[in-house]
Amino acid sequence: MTTTADSIYEPLTEETAIQLARRLNLFDAEADLVCREIGDGNLNLVFHVTEPTAGKGVIIKQALPYVRIIGEGWPLTLERARMESEALRIFARYAPEYVPEVYYTDNDYAITVMEDLSHLTIVRTGLAEGAIYPLLSTHIGQYMARTLYGTSDYALGAEARRELALQFHNPELCKITENFVFTYPLIDHESNVVEEGLRPLAEQIWRDAQLLREGARLKRHFMISAEALLHGDLHTGSIFASETETRVIDPEFAFYGPMGYDIGLFIANTLLSAFARSEHSREELLAHVTNVWDVFAAEFTALWQENNQEPLADAAGYLDDELLRIFQDAIGYAGSEMMRRVIGLAHARDIEAISDKDRRLHIKSSAALLARDLIVNRSHYKRAPQIVEALRQADRNEPILHS
Ligand SMILES: Nc1ncnc2c1ncn2[C@@H]1O[C@H](COP(=O)(O)OP(=O)(O)O)[C@@H](O)[C@H]1O
Ligand SMILES: CSC[C@H]1O[C@H](OP(=O)(O)O)[C@H](O)[C@@H]1O
C-alpha cells in the first residue's frame, strides 16, 4: 500500500466528484450536475460527471490504493495515476487526435480529469456487437507509429530518451504484466482461470519446453528493452471508437519498453474478437490485423526519413531490419497476450460471452494453438497476411505451416 498515515488521499464519491468538477470550474456555477461511477476496468474508479441539460460531461478517473476488482488484499501503487496522466500528455504531443485531452491532475489524490468520450464505444464491446470501425487500424497504426517513433532514440536522441524514460519507472505495473501476461499462463499457477474442458490443453502447454523457452525470452526482452514509451496495455478495451474517430485511453502501464509490445497487444485482441465471430463476419477484423501493420510500417518509415538522430540510420538495409525485428517482436507478444486471455487471469469478454460451450472451447483451443505458434515460430513470420493464414489453419485444427 502506498498511502501513509499522513497521506491526504481519500477515494472520491459521486458527491465529492461533483464538488471537484465545480471547484475546477468545468461547468457553469449554477449548472445542475449528476454523477455516476462507471468504472468497468480491473483497477480504478471512473466518475462520469454530466450536465444533462447542456449535454456536457467530464471524466474523473481515480486510482485506488489497491486493485479494484480484488480489494484491499491486493495493494497497488497510486503512482499509476501519475503514469497515466503524464503518458496521456506526452502521447498528445505526437498524436493529439488519438488521445483524450487531460484537463487536470492531482497526484496526491491520484486523480486525472479528462475529456468525456462517451459519444464513442469501447472497441471490444463494439466489435462483439458486430461493429467494424473502418478507420480503426489506420488510426491505431498511425497512433502507434507516432508515439513509439516519437519517444524513441531515433526521434529524440539517446540523451533525451533516457531522460524521459526516468519519469516512467513503473515497476509495480510492469510486474503485473510480467506475472500475468508472461509467467503465470505458462505455468500451473493458482491465478489462472482454465475452463473445464480446456485443462488437458493447458497441461500440454505447461509441459511444452519449446514454448516455455520462447515465452521466457519474450518476457526477458520485455523487461530489458527501453526502446520507446509504450502505452503498455493497448488492448481493445483501452480504445474508444466510432465510424470516424478513434481514441486510446488508460495508459497507466506506460513505461519504456519494446515497441512490438503495443503492436502485439492490438493484434492479439483483434484476433480474439475475430475468433469470437462467425467465420463469414471475420474478414473486416482480419483486414484490421494486416492494415495496422502496413500503416504502422509506412508511417514509421516516413518519420524515420523525416527526422532521425541516428547517424547510421541510412545504412543500407538497416530500416528494413528494424521493421522486421519490431514485427517479429509484435508477433511473439501477440502470442503471449492471446495465451493469457485464454488461460490466464483476465479473459477476453467477447469470447467468455459465447454461450455455446463447444464453440467457446473450440475458439479457446484454436486461440491457444495460434498463440503457441506466434510465440515459438515468430521468426517464421515475415508478412502480416501470414498471421491471418495461421488463424485460419488454427481454426480448422490444422498444423500451422509457414510458406
Ligand atoms: N475519457 C473517458 N470518457 C468516457 N468514458 C471513459 C473514459 N475513460 C474511461 N471511461 C469508461 O470507464 C471505463 C474504465 O476505464 P479504464 O480507463 O479502462 O479503467 P481501468 O484503468 O480500471 O481499466 C471504460 O471502459 C469506459 O467505459
Ligand atoms: C488484475 S490486473 C489484470 C489486468 O488488468 C489490466 O487491464 P485493465 O486496466 O484494462 O482493466 C491489465 O491488462 C492487467 O494485466
UniProtKB/TrEMBL annotation:
UniProt enzyme class: transferase
Metabolic or biological pathway, per its Swiss-Prot or TrEMBL entry: Amino-acid biosynthesis; L-methionine biosynthesis via salvage pathway; S-methyl-5-thio-alpha-D-ribose 1-phosphate from S-methyl-5'-thioadenosine (hydrolase route): step 2/2
Record keyword Kinase present: yes
GO biological process, one term: L-methionine salvage from methylthioadenosine
Documented EC number(s): 2.7.1.100
GO terms of molecular function: ATP binding; S-methyl-5-thioribose kinase activity
Pfam families per UniProt: APH
Keyword terms: Amino-acid biosynthesis, ATP-binding, Kinase, Methionine biosynthesis, Nucleotide-binding, Transferase
UniProt superkingdom: Bacteria
Chain residues that bind ATP: 44, 61, 115-117, 250-252
Reactions mediated catalytically: 5-(methylsulfanyl)-D-ribose + ATP = 5-(methylsulfanyl)-alpha-D-ribose 1-phosphate + ADP + H(+)
Subunit structure: Homodimer.
Task performed by this protein: Catalyzes the phosphorylation of methylthioribose into methylthioribose-1-phosphate.
NCBIfam families: MTRK
HAMAP family per record: Salvage_MtnK
UniProt-listed PANTHER family: METHYLTHIORIBOSE KINASE
Descriptive protein name: Methylthioribose kinase
